[in-house]
Amino acid sequence: MPACGAAFRAELASFEAANRWVQTMVSEYRPLLHAHGHWYLGEALERFTPAVLVLPLLLLALLRAPLLGLGGRAALFVLASGTFALGCYEVKLAHFFQILWPLVLVIGGEWLLQRLPLPARGACTPSKVGAAVALLLVAWSAWHLPRGTTQLSAAQLAQRELMDFVRELRGNGPDPKLPAAVLAPWSLGAPLLYEARKPVVASGYHRNLEGIHDGIRAFLATDGAAIEPILRKRNVRWLIVQPKLDFFAEASAVLPELPRYASVRDVRFGPGRVRSTDFDLDWDLLERTILFQLGFAPQVRSTAQARLVYESRSQLAMPPPLGVAPAFRVFEVRLTEERGR
Fold first, then answer.
1. How far is residue 114's CA from residue 116's CA, in Å, rounded to a whole number?
2. Residues 241, 295: contact at Cβ < 8 Å?
3. What per-residue confidence (pLDDT) applies to 196?
4. I need a surface site. Which of 149, 201, 209, 324 has the fewest CB within 10 A?
5. Is residue 93 a contact partner of residue 86, using CB atoms and an 8 Å limit?
6. E-assigned strands of the chain?
7. End-to-end Cα separation, the chain, in angstroms
8. Over the range 254-286, which residues count as b (16 or more CB within 10 Å of their CB) and which as e?
9. Would you list the domain boundaries of the chain?
10. What contacts 247, CB < 8 A, 6 or more positions away?
11. Which of 290, 180, 171, 305 is nearest to 235 (CA)?
C-alpha cells in the first residue's frame, strides 16, 4: 500500500505540473471568463451569443418550465450547470455545454417570455421560440465566421519563412554522428517534426512535459555553463529563438521555482479576443537570459557556443525601449568538445 500511495502522489504531481502548463500556455485550456489574470466576457459572448448574460435566469426558469417533467427539468439543469462550469474551468470543455445551450434557450426562454409584460407574449409558443433560437444561433455563428483575406499577417509570413528554412535541415549536418535535435518553443514542435524530420526537445503534448520544462529552462539560462547540460542531455544541434515577451510571464507560472521575470499589468480586449498585453518586466533578470540575448537584441553575432545561421527577414515591433527584432533566429549549437576539435 505505501508503494501505491507514493505512485498515486507522483501521478497527482505530474497532473498538476501538466495542468499548470496547459492552462498557462495552451489557449484552448484557459478559463472561459479569464485571460492573463483579468476577467473578460468576449469568449463567452462569441460562443454563446449575448443571451449567456442571462444564463442564471434561464437556468432558474428551466426548473419551472412545464415543457418537461420534474425529472427532465432537474437532469437538464444539472447537466447544463455542470457543463458550463467545466467550460469556465477550461474553454475546450465548453462544447459540452454548447450541445445543451439550445435546449436551455428554448425551454427557459419560453417560460421567461410568457411572464414578461409584452403585448404578444401569448404568441411565444415553444415552436416559435425554437425557430427564433435556431435563427439567432445560425446568424450569430455566420457573423463570427473568419473574414477572408488575400494577405498573410506578419506572424504567418514569419512562420512560412521559418518552415522554408527548416526544410533545408532534413539531411543537413557536417557530420552525421553529431547531435541533430532542435530546441525551439514547444508550439513549433509539431511543424518542425514534420518539416525538418528531426527530433525536437519540446512539443505540444503533455507526455513530453519534461522536454517542455527543459526548453523553458534552456531559454532562461543565464550563461553557457547553465544551458550546456540541457543541450547535451537533449542532443541539441539547432536552436530556434523567437522574441516573445509573454514567454517570460508564462514561464514563471509553469515553473513556480523560477524567478518572476514578468507579470501582466494590463490586457486590452477586442471582439472576443485579447488584442494586446502590457507587462511589468524585471529588466535585470530578462537581460541575462539566453532568450533575451539571442532573440531580442537588434543585432546578434555568433558566439563560441552558438553560430548564427539564419535571421528572419520579418521584423516584429517590441515595446519601448526594445525597438524591433527579427521574428526568429536560428543558431547551430557547438558543445565544448566540438569547439576543441
1. 6
2. yes
3. 81
4. 149
5. yes
6. 34-35, 38-39, 181-183, 236-241, 262-270, 273-281, 306-311, 315-317, 324-326, 329-333
7. 54
8. bbeeeeebbebeebeeeeeebeebebebeeebb
9. 31-143, 154-339
10. 185, 219, 291
11. 180
Chain mean pLDDT for the chain? 82
CB neighbour list of residue 34: distance below 8 Å, 6 or more residues apart: 40
Q: How many CB atoms lie within 10 A of CB 189?
A: 22
- Cell 557556443 belongs to which residue? 305
| CA pair distance 299, 311, nearest whole angstrom | 10
Nearest to 329 by CA among 293, 284, 286: 293
Round to whole Å and give the CA distance between 248 and 281.
9
Q: Percent of the chain beyond pLDDT 70?
A: 87
Q: What residues contact 185, with CB distance under 8 A and at least 6 apart?
A: 202, 215, 240, 242, 244, 247
Q: Is 81 a residue whose pLDDT tops 60?
A: yes
- If phi > 0 it is left, if psi is from -120 to 50 it is alpha, else beta; for residue 246 that is alpha
pLDDT tier at 176 (50, 70, 90 boundaries)? low
Q: Which of 291, 327, 301 is nearest to 165 (CA)?
A: 327
Segment 188-201 mean pLDDT: 84
Three cell numbers, residue 339:
569547439
Going by the DSSP 8-state scheme, the letter that residue 171 receives in this structure is T
User: Measured between alpha carbons, how far is 254 from 273 in angstroms, rounded to an integer?
Assistant: 23
CATH fold of 154-339, please?
A: Rossmann fold (3.40.50)
User: How far is residue 298's CA from residue 52's CA, in Å, rounded to a whole number?
Assistant: 46
